[in-house]
Amino acid sequence: MKHIGLTGNIGSGKTTVCRVFGLLGIPVFYADIQARMILERPDMANRVAGIFGRDVLDSRQGIDRSRLAAVVFSDKEALQRLNALIHPAVREEYERWAGKQTAPYAIMEAAILFETGYAARFDKTILVAADLETRISRVCKRDGVRREDVIMRMNNQRPQEELTALADYVIYNDDNVLVLPQILTLDIELGRL
């Protein structure tokens, strides 16, 4: 089985693209969802609170994700510390999950695939791309946040142009190109690897 990494900046439509691959019978591991689940574990919540302070905990002594986001998205070093804690655990979960898959290829969807150095583990990588205004609009609508909040998050991400140069394939997910034909073509190619 081939391992495919899929990434894209916030609002690019990674989840939508992955859902289509899923409908085609391709197993998809959602790293961000797994990271949230790991963050909810009591042992991890305690470790995170030990690094960032007890203010990031909620009334149940779990992580208050909005408080934690306020800390890490305004401080790149804090974000790096959090990623260094969470991402090794996500990788372990992916490896366990991937060992159980039987499709010709499986996809790991991760927002920061190249930034963590984990992209080298994959046979091929896919970038889901969309223009800046489309991405901002999607996130504002989806998360009910202000434009400034989205831009602050984007400032912590690698520019899309750099990711485009690193990825093996790019799926354009905006109003200029149909997404489904791109995915179907790529599914055929990846199935042949």
Task: Looking at this protein, list some descriptive labels.
single chain; 193 residues; alpha/beta; Rossmann fold; 2 domains; 5-stranded parallel beta sheet; 53% helix
How is the biggest beta sheet arranged? 5 strands, parallel
**What is the approximate shape?**
globular
Share in β-strands: 5-15%
Assembly type: single chain
CATH superfamily of the largest domain: P-loop containing nucleotide triphosphate hydrolases
Q: Quick check: average pLDDT?
A: 92
The CATH topology label of the largest domain is Rossmann fold
Structure characterization notes:
This protein folds into 2 domains: 120 residues, 3-Layer(aba) Sandwich (Rossmann fold); 66 residues. Helix 2 crosses helix 5 and helix 3 runs antiparallel to helix 5. The chain has a 5-stranded parallel sheet with strand order 2-3-1-4-5, with helices on both faces. By secondary structure, the chain is an alpha/beta fold. The mean pLDDT is 92. 53% of the residues lie in helices and 12% in strands. The protein is built from 9 helices and 5 strands.
Summary, kept brief:
This protein has 193 residues and is an alpha/beta fold. Strands 2-3-1-4-5 form a five-stranded parallel β-sheet, with helices on both faces.
